[in-house]
Amino acid sequence: MNISGTWLGTYWQKGQPTRFEATFVQGNNALSGSILDENNLGEAQLSGEVIGRSIRFTKRYLTSSPIPIDYGGSINDEENFMSGTWQLELPAKEGGRPRKLSGTWEAHRSDQDLMADLKNRLTQQIPVGANS
């Protein structure tokens, strides 16, 4: 199973949806990449793993929030849809206990195969018979 590529998704927090675009890079079971949320939190880096149809990764925003967000879920057999839950733990306020936030998420493989598109463009730029 290889999920490398661009995925479009949504996560829900307190019933409110936020769309995102994720770019996954998978090497064996290791997973890395980036996520750009539709809201003002900005870009995040991700790292994790894919084992069989199971996916787990941690998302860390580059500038807006140092709190890691853990995602877990499963990937369908066709390798074009994944879903699961996310959670994070907010630090305790004075005298309080840490608060946990969680929700659900889902993503589908983007129809835009950016790498194939780039290869097609490069192929079209090479003159046919240039070495003849």
What does the model show?
Strands 1-2-3-4-5-6-7-8 form an eight-stranded antiparallel barrel. The model has no long low-confidence stretch (mean pLDDT 87). It has one domain: Quinohemoprotein amine dehydrogenase alpha subunit, domain 2 (Lipocalin, Beta Barrel), CATH 2.40.128.120. It contains one helix and eight strands; from the N terminus they run E-E-E-E-E-E-E-E-H. Strand 1 (5-13) and strand 2 form a beta hairpin. With 132 residues, the chain is mostly beta strands. It has one helix at 114-125; strands spanning 5-13, 16-27, 30-37, 43-51, 54-61, 69-75, 81-90, 99-109. Helices cover 9% and strands 56% of the residues.
Overall structural class, as computed from helix and strand content, comes to mainly beta
- What is the annotated CATH architecture? Beta Barrel
Q: Taking Cα atoms only, what radius of gyration do you get, to the nearest Å? A: 18 Å
Q: Name the assembly state.
A: single chain
CATH class designation: Mainly Beta
Q: Note poorly predicted spans.
A: none
Our count of domains comes out at: 1
Mean pLDDT, all residues: 87
From the spread of the alpha carbons, the general shape counts as globular
Give the neighbour order of strands across the main sheet.
1-2-3-4-5-6-7-8
Tell how many strands the DSSP assignment holds.
8
Distance between the termini: 43 Å
- Count of DSSP-assigned helices: 1
Helix content: under 10%
In CATH terms, what is the fold-level topology? Answer: Lipocalin
Please outline the major beta sheet: 8 strands, antiparallel, barrel
N-to-C series of helices and strands = EEEEEEEEH
Name of the CATH superfamily: Quinohemoprotein amine dehydrogenase alpha subunit, domain 2
What fraction of residues sit in β-strands? over 45%
